[in-house]
Amino acid sequence: MKYIVGLVLGRWIERSLINSLMKRKYLSGVGKGFSLVEILVMVLIIATLASIGMPSYVNFVERSRVQEVVELARVFATAEQRFHMLNGRYSADPSTLDIEVTGLNYFVIVRPITVDPRGNGFVIQVTRNNRQRPTTLSNYTVEFAVDSMGNSAFTGQLTPPGLVSLIGRYVRASNSIPINLMVWQPHPGYRPSGGGNGGGGGIFVLPP
């Protein structure tokens, strides 16, 4: 909302200033150029609009990269369920699953996978690598949890029922993904904690 108001106000000021300058230049019949003060005002307006719009653009691009984690999570959840059906347990080693994870551009898998010792589910963590990472962001972590009842979730909302005793009400990890980069809806009660700009964690139930 702040970005929209700033953008509208900036454009209105810019348009008003240009119209005023054009009227003075052409309606007066004198083709004089812009003064130094007028040019400085224009530069200030452009710089202000850029400072408002650039963070929003960076967040938009980074959120699109987080989609890579969403797709990876779906693949892992399905592979772990197949492994569990065949072996009666979940695997902590991604290399034992019947999938080959290649082509990750912006994230790396944290090994080993955290498996509940009672067989109630597992938690996968991925960390942002340095490829095209904005300097304003740290190497944040995304958590993905699946319980034995098939409930699956990301950082930011309530933990699946089967894993509450293992990881608590929310998934907790150092330097978790910032809320403004989540491409899922975080739980209203979620409060970041832990590592700096993101902190904390939580859960999001994936649609079928």
Please, could you describe this protein's structure?
The protein is of the alpha+beta class. It folds into two domains: about 1-55; about 65-180. Helices cover about 40% and strands about 15% of the residues. The chain is built from three helices and four strands; from the N terminus they run ααββββα. It has a four-stranded antiparallel beta sheet, with helices on one face. Helix 1 (about 1-25) packs antiparallel against helix 2 (about 35-85). It is elongated, with a radius of gyration of 25 Å. The two termini are about 35 Å apart.
Strand content: 5-15%
Percent helix range: 25-40%
State the low-pLDDT regions, or none.
Answer: 194-208
Largest sheet, if any?
A: 4 strands, antiparallel
Strand segment count: 4
- Side by side, the strands of the main sheet go 1-2-3-4
What is the string of helix and strand elements?
HHEEEEH
Distance between the termini: 33 Å
**What is the tally of helical segments?**
3
> How many structural domains can be distinguished in the coordinates?
2
